[in-house]
Amino acid sequence: TTKAFLPTMLEINHGHIVTVASSLGLFSTAGVEDYCASKFGVVGFHESLSHELKAAEKDGIKTTLVCPYLVDTGMFRGCRIRKEIEPFLPPLKPDYCVKQAMKAILTDQPMICTPRLMYIVTFMKSILPFEAVVCMYRFLGADKCMYPFIAQRKQATNNNEAKNGI
């Protein structure tokens, strides 16, 4: 999509590029390495493109990076953080994420993390040593939050294999 629209945007120095990633593009967790890698790639693409536009002095082309926390779409159904923390970080409703993203786009915010607590996690990851980040993840229950999801997927796959005689 960017390849299709960017040349004209560059020509007229006008437009807005919105990149939808995930909070898992800013920090990772165990069990979904492939997903995290793809989201880190999306964030890297966005940052590089943003720097390229700034270097080319194309100030009429805005960029917004959207990084929501777990969105309640069913994609990661079963993902669980520590039960005491869960009330403070429930899965986000899709319409709320869209509203937050639209607000960021309309106000030319370069980045939106939803909820705002994700900024703190990202900041802490950037200043703390790795072992301290591991402790923080363990405290939040984020270190193994995908394990219930993975177990559910494995169970569903095994059930389908048994039903289909595979």
Features:
166 residues, mainly alpha, 6 helices, 11% strand
Your description of this structure?
There is one protein chain. The chain is mainly α and 166 residues long. The chain contains 6 helices and 3 strands. The protein has helices at residues 2-12, 33-55, 94-106, 117-127, 130-140, 147-164; strands at residues 15-20, 61-68, 111-114. The protein starts with a helix and ends with a helix.
List the helices and strands and how they pair.
Blueprint: H1 2-12, E1 15-20, H2 33-55, E2 61-68, H3 94-106, E3 111-114, H4 117-127, H5 130-140, H6 147-164
Parallel strand pairs: 1-2, 2-3
What low-confidence regions span 5 or more consecutive residues with pLDDT below 50? none
Percent in helix: 40-55%
Tell me the β content: 5-15%
If you compute it from the alpha carbons, what radius of gyration comes out, rounded to the nearest whole angstrom? 19 Å
Q: Please, how many helices?
A: 6
Order of helices and strands: HEHEHEHHH
Provide a concise account of the structure shown.
InterPro entries: NAD(P)-bd_dom_sf, Sc_DH/Rdtase_CS, SDR_fam. The protein has helices at 2-12, 33-55, 94-106, 117-127, 130-140, 147-164; strands spanning 15-20, 61-68, 111-114.
